[in-house]
Specification:
338 residues
Length: 338
């Protein structure tokens, strides 16, 4: 078995993927035709060629503009089903999926249309493909805390369908503290908590400390700048907080994929995981991210399986369910080495 084959068939858990970021150009054109939306590109190839980002703001400008084709429950169903089908092909057994309701309700799309479509795809993917998933509702940090609170309140009738809340979009000038009251209310409502701490942002280390001490998250998305502070690394390792690193996307918005970060975090006993982020825009789903990490770090089957175990350990699942998934990873590793 080649190492690439091992990676493809390795049982995986994805904890950092934005469902809107899985909108491939081909599906975008299909939804545009269905909804009568005119796109500023002649075809999918031209659209994909325009994905030349140099930082987070340049990515976000194109990313949010591309959501205009998502209008109906059927659109969100097709979007989620396409991702979950692709995840199944890469042996993802379980995923926790971000969605950005404010990016849709601001365009006049009903919150119910968004989550009903996503939920229906989740149920079909579990029944037909055996891929289980849960939803994480993200607030857009470049909008107001009042807007985030209104979105949180709007989500409460669907609380049983949402496992946690997160914070994404442009981090500049939008620290975790801005949303402390929103996340406190979310905790009171029973949601799990995570926040993006994007790569090389202003006061990145301070933001990670605030996520831990002020907000009380149980995971941090990206978080690679934690390595600048040994005491922070020690605390994250001690508490077993998951860090959801996305190497391919890092290469688009920073000076490289930061794969060395993955190895250094592993050496420090930190619960680092590998994920795809916005794969339709960055050209790689979870297996491709694992391949990149293996190419740069040469972890081998044991190290790659460790990354998969880390993700299942960091997942928002009951202990018994984590153990079942971990047993699947262990069996796969034993058989592949036998």
């Amino acid at each position: 078995m080649t190492i690439d084959s091992f990676i493809l068939d390795l049982p995986k858990c994805e904890l950092h993927v934005h469902i809107e970021g899985t909108l491939e150009p081909e599906l975008k054109f299909a939804l545009a035709a269905r909804n009568g939306v005119t796109l500023p590109f002649t075809d999918a190839a031209q659209m994909r060629a325009a994905y030349a980002f140099h930082d987070l703001p340049s990515f976000l400008a194109l990313y949010y503009g591309g959501m205009d084709v998502l209008l109906t429950e059927a659109d969100f169903y097709d979007l989620a089903m396409a991702y979950l089908t692709r995840a199944h092909a890469q042996t993802v057994l379980y995923a926790e999926i971000f969605f950005d309701p404010q990016a849709h309700t601001a365009r006049g799309v009903r919150f119910g249309a968004v989550i009903d479509g996503l939920r229906r795809a989740q149920m079909d993917a579990e029944r037909l493909l055996g891929v289980r998933s849960q939803l994480i509702m993200c607030f857009l940090r470049d909008l107001s805390a009042d807007s985030a609170m209104a979105t949180l309140l709007e989500s409460l009738p669907y609380k049983a369908w949402i496992v946690g809340v997160g914070l994404d979009s442009d981090e500049k000038g939008n620290p975790p503290a801005k949303f402390a009251c929103v996340f406190a209310r979310a905790r009171d409502e029973g949601f799990q908590l995570t926040m993006h701490c994007d790569v090389n942002q202003e006061d990145s280390v301070g933001h990670i400390w605030d996520c831990v001490n002020l907000i009380g998250v149980s995971r941090i998305d990206h978080g690679v700048n934690a390595l600048e502070d040994p005491s922070l690394c020690a605390l994250l390792a001690e508490r077993g907080l998951g860090l959801t690193v996305c190497p391919i996307s890092n290469a688009f918005v920073t000076d490289g994929p930061q794969t060395d970060v993955v190895g250094r975090m592993m050496d420090l006993g930190m619960r680092v995981t590998v994920n795809s982020d916005d794969p339709a825009y960055f050209g790689g789903y979870i297996a491709e991210n694992f391949v990149l990490v293996q190419r740069d770090l040469n972890l081998g089957p044991e190290g790659l399986a460790k990354l998969s175990r880390n993700a299942f350990e960091a997942a928002w699942l009951p202990r018994s369910q984590k153990d079942r998934y971990l047993a699947v990873v262990d069996r796969y590793l034993a058989v592949s080495q036998g």
